[in-house]
Specification:
By secondary structure, this protein is of the alpha/beta class. Helices cover 29% and strands 22% of the residues. Strands 1-2-3-4-5-6-7 form a seven-stranded mixed sheet, covered by helices on one side. A six-stranded mixed sheet has the order 8-9-10-11-12-13, with no helix packed on it. Strands 14-15 form a two-stranded antiparallel ribbon.
């Protein structure tokens, strides 16, 4: 697959990515978060709508968001309950007094919001598109005009990790297919740069996942094996820091194949039927 990279973005400064939409990148740089978590600010006369407050590990990010919004925030939206997106939710709510909103069924009972959106419901001009797979409560948020905040479901710089039990590969496939049925013109992801002409990229993601699934099934033809051995075989050129994520993806593919009755397991060993 072909990915889109970008230079290290400026810190502590919100830059416009589209008219009326700015991006403030938290400095939580890791192999899984690229340059950091994207906090989006939609400028409105009544106060900004903020999407994904960012990671608890960088509390100064709250000050950066408040300063970028001149202290006027009308609503805080959450795409999903992974720590690099929700960690500063409570702190930003306290600082701004703005209500918080997330998917109607939280994947983490300890993380709650003031308001809830079910699939297809709208608030402040944003419509929830439930896209489980990376996380059970993951939502993309759609604006009129073909703009989709795609969070961690689709990112331009990398494929998405699907890590069971919260991640579910069959659901991820279905969610990608759902986005293919839409006519969005660009995605604003949770990490990395804007993705233009997204439908071709989503088709490539689906093709890549299907190829990986076929490779997992073919590798099992040689005999029962475990997830680590499969990961070594399929990702032998992988950066060592990404080994754990790759093994989780392999497990997610195996669980999908098991649900479809194509593979089985005995203890830690997986085998074809």
């Amino acid at each position: 697959m072909s990915f889109t990279t970008e230079p290290l973005p400026p810190r502590h400064v919100a830059e416009e990515v589209l008219p009326g939409i700015r991006r403030l990148v938290a400095p939580n740089v890791t192999p899984m978060t690229y340059h950091g978590t994207n906090t989006y600010i939609i400028d409105r006369p009544e106060g900004a709508v903020v999407i994904d407050p960012g990671p608890e590990s960088h509390p100064d990010h709250v000050d950066d968001v408040m300063r970028a919004c001149d202290g006027k925030i009308a609503l805080i939206m959450l795409s999903h309950t992974h720590h690099d997106h929700h960690g500063l939710l409570a702190a930003l709510r306290t600082a701004s007094g703005a209500p918080t909103c997330g998917f109607t069924h939280s994947a983490d009972p300890s993380i709650t919001t003031d308001l809830h959106l079910a699939d297809g419901e709208s608030l402040s001009g944003l419509t929830a598109v439930h896209t489980p797979g990376h996380c059970a409560d993951h939502i993309c948020l759609a604006l009129p005009g073909g703009i989709l905040f795609s969070a961690d479901h689709v990112m331009a710089w990398s494929t998405t990790v699907v890590s069971p039990p919260g991640g579910h590969m069959a659901a991820y496939f279905r969610s990608l297919e759902r986005l293919l049925a839409r006519d969005d013109s660009c995605y604003l992801p949770g990490h990395g740069p804007i993705l233009r002409e997204p439908r071709a990229y989503v088709r490539a993601l689906l093709f890549h996942r299907r190829q990986r699934e076929a490779a997992v099934a073919e590798a099992l033809q040689s005999g029962p094996t475990d997830t680590e051995s499969l990961m070594d075989q399929l990702y032998h050129k992988l950066n060592p820091t990404l080994r754990r994520a790759a093994e989780r993806n392999v497990l997610a593919h195996l669980l999908k194949l098991e649900e479809e009755g194509r593979v089985g397991r005995h203890g830690d060993l997986w085998y074809v039927h």
